[in-house]
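User: Can you fold this complex?
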Amino acid sequence: MRAMGIVCAAAVSVGSAQIVQQLQNGGDFAFKFNGADYRITGAANFEESFNPRPVFKLEFADLNNDGVALDILLDLRPFANIDRQVPLFATVISDSPNEAVIRWSGTDNPNICVEVSDDGFSASILITEVRGVLTGRVRRVACQADPYNTLGRNIHLEIVKEGGDPQNNLYVKANLFCVQNQFTEIEVNVFNLRWAASGGGLSKRIGNLNGDCVVDDADLLQVLFNFGSNDAASDTNGDGAVDDADLLVVLFNFGSTL
Ligand SMILES: [Ca+2]
Ligand SMILES: [Ca+2]
Ligand SMILES: [Ca+2]
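Assistant: Here's the predicted assembly.
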């Protein structure tokens, strides 16, 4: 009877949690960049556009230790082939059981000389400053297949861009040819950002091994059939072994659904 009590409590807590907690529970999200425009001013002057990029997965972490584990490292490689990750820290603007608004923002001072190549622009530049802000509205949707086929589990949260350029932009300060003086300085303003994302779902960490919308006997059987092996798909805590710890994770969360 005691076990049943734990099972019921877990099932209720997932369904009624605030959206921010639900997004955090997923551990990561799929980010789709659909394009943007950018304006370069200073030592060079022109305007161009970024094309859409393939979907990539962004892991959540609490990088600034403020208790909100929704911070991300935005990889610049997909955008301009720049080997640098910019930390964007999450701020919760609003939160409820059905909808939340989250802002990711951060500043980075890499001081690295890189060869950038992108749609319409190619040069070596010294990047001195990167600033970014993304604002998204997170909405609860029916638990369903990940539309971007990236996370390896079903999702139940979609994230759409919230607000205009002030809430969604990227700024880069750099020097052409990696020579730092006033004659080589350029500023890059990225605007009209178009993006969308999806996340949430029930993660493997809480015992949803098959990636569907419930922790149930299918997950339990998967642990039992792989018990004693090192099957990564059945390893809830990622310690390389399928053992009683994983079995307990499934049992404690048994009945959790979205
Ligand atoms: Ca944080
Ligand atoms: Ca399942
Ligand atoms: Ca394990």
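The longest helix spans residues 2-16. DSSP finds five helices and eleven strands in the chain.
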